[in-house]
Design goal:
The complex is a heterodimer of chains A (191) and B (85). Chain A has 191 residues and is mostly helical. In chain A, 66% of the residues lie in helices and 0% in strands. The radius of gyration of chain A is 19 Å and the shape is elongated. The chains are: A mainly alpha (191), B mainly alpha (85).
Amino acid sequence: MRPRPTEAESVLVARARGGDRDAFEALVRRHGDRLYAVVLRFVADGDEAQEVTQEAFLRAWRSIAQFEGRSHFFTWLYRIGINEAKRRAARRPAAAVVSLNDEPIPEAPDWSDSPQTRFEHADLRRVLEHAVRALPIEYRTPLILRDIEGLSTREAAEVMELGMAAFKSRLHRARLAVRRALDEYFLEGES
Amino acid sequence: MIRRFLAHRRYMREHRWTHTHLSEYLDEELAARDADRVAEHVSICPHCRRVLATLRRTLEGLRSLPAEPRPGLAEVVIDHLWQAP
């Protein structure tokens, strides 16, 4: 889960705004791992995720004087990191993004009570990871921020600079699409 | 006949409305009256009941996805910061 904002964090941000490198390094140590985890779900591999994380912190350091503290530091940082990850994704050849299909499969079994759905199985996790990656990026982002990273709806909407209604609508469609991928998985398991 | 038609139309209206509000219901972000509305429809609609149950499981799965750590990341980032031109 993301680090909780604390009084100390606002002090660190204020010091960093004044050019204090030690304070900014403390912010890197506090938020680096979580930012890396987020951008890893947008880019090709761990090396690229590290590059994006480095670039995001560099941009944050260079523009921290413009950060006015009206939002949490981490929402501002996540926005920088995700925008950088999207910029890189746009440079790559088009990935195999599936169209957003969120309709349930009528003949799929009801797998809600299946012991397999404890998600302990590696193959089931792989199906989930693949379903998330296959989402168009504008739907993948709310799902990652809200459901995987555990941000509140308000925080995640803020990162995406979306109104609450628009954010919730995208999140719901993304969840239904991933749910459908699991329908397909369990349907195949039956056949 | 007309009564049955009206009942079906009401059912379908509730069905569509419920389907678009299942996430907010699971996130406990609906007003009490709207949450009751979802619960009432789900209690009589097998389709929505299945979608709700499997959607709940989907969220459990997403929340349990592990993050891949990158040992030493913070120090690499910090080195990069101060070496950048």
